[in-house]
Amino acid sequence: MKLYNTLTRKKEEFVPVNEGKVGIYVCGPTVYNYIHIGNARPMVVFDTVRRYFEYKGYDVNYVSNFTDVDDKIIKKAIEEGVDAHEISERFIVECKKDMEGLNVKPATTHPKATEEIDGMIKMIEELIAEDYAYEKNGTVYFRTRHFKNYGQLSNKNLDDMIAGARIAVNEEKDDAMDFVLWKPKKEGEPSWPSPWGDGRPGWHIECSVMSKKYIGDTIDIHAGGEDLIFPHHENEIAQSEACNHEKFANYWMHNAFLNIDNKKMSKSAGNFFTVREISEKYDLQVIRFFMLSAHYRSPLNFSDTLVEASKNGLERILTAIDRLRELVADGQEDQMTEADQKNVEEAKSLVAKFEEAMEDDFNTADAISAIFELVKLANVTGPEGSTAYDRYLLDTITRLCEILGIVTDKKEELLDADIEALIEERQAARKARDFARADQIRDQLADQGIILEDTRQGVKWRRA
């Protein structure tokens, strides 16, 4: 299996730290709002990586954190007049709903930054003891110049970065490129006691501590979006290797950006979409399929035209699966014919093509092409073919779809009476100001393709 390693800028054969096992750490979202469509790409991509390792028989320890203390969370809490913890917990729940809609498997561990503060303080103390960090007025900084390989992941030169940096008047740092490990408490912000006074951790130290605790000093694969290469992942390497005296991660995988209609997604441009908003228009399985239709290291352009094409492609696969299920259900137990045996050999070669694509740096686009060729093979199967062959094709296609996280079972359609009952329950919840339950019911109906419209005449609904 070959992976493209951002650290070495080339494809390398994957060799795990421990035979038969793989530890994967993926930087998770900062939970201050619903996740946006850009957040969803690494979730889908690296969930698929995990699924393929499991298919190959690896014991996978998949860790993805929630950053639940951050300036954006605090800002949102102040705006709403609530505690920061309430904001983060609310959006962790919402994030998990969206992950479920995208069929992203729960991680082996989903650590929260706020629950790992003791470990962060311990690592910072060790860095200070080894002169990799220093304290100034309650703030602890990391000495970037003391870490000789700083810039290796991002391919940045420290002197060039410093030359381009602007140092504010009365700057406390010893060096412009030193970064924060611990920051002192500000009024109205969450804080924890530490040897340097009450405060909270910097962003980078969180992942160094959580990956060490739940995987070990050396991770097989560290992954995330390419926007995290610098400074976040660069700083993680510096902290972790300075503290642990071990290589931090053997392989670095980064997915490319997702653009909207060939433009960078931003709120100011008016092209910023959350997964929840997208789910009102498209089944999230279509979005997952769309995201896997391009190689993860290629920029992905999100547009209605391209998503519609993915929707049609997914329907082609699911229609073929449904047809095979009907043939199997209606058929009798029998033996494969000689012609069937020849087709089985062709199907096996397509499975090998699928695996070859996945083992070449997880080329999901080519893997999907192999599935389409299997679908083509299935579509020429007539009722005169053997049930044993139909079952073989059905099992083969569904197994490959499962590796990509594509759900092949149809959802049971809600009856009108069930919909009306849920709408009544939602109205009662809103009246009782239980807005969380009301939103949950709306989301449940949306997952079933039911669109609600609140009008002056009451709630109207329609099937998508």
Can you describe this structure?
This protein has 464 residues and is α/β, with parallel strands linked by helices. The protein has 3 domains: 2-255, Rossmann fold (3-Layer(aba) Sandwich), CATH 3.40.50; 304-403, Anticodon-binding domain of a subclass of class I aminoacyl-tRNA synthetases (Four Helix Bundle (Hemerythrin (Met), subunit A)); 416-463. Helix content is 47%, strand content 15%. The protein has 15 helices and 15 strands. The strands form 5 sheets. It has a 4-stranded parallel beta sheet, sandwiched between helices. It has a 4-stranded antiparallel beta sheet with strand order 5-6-7-8. The longest helix has 27 residues, at 304-330. The model has no long low-confidence stretch (mean pLDDT 93).
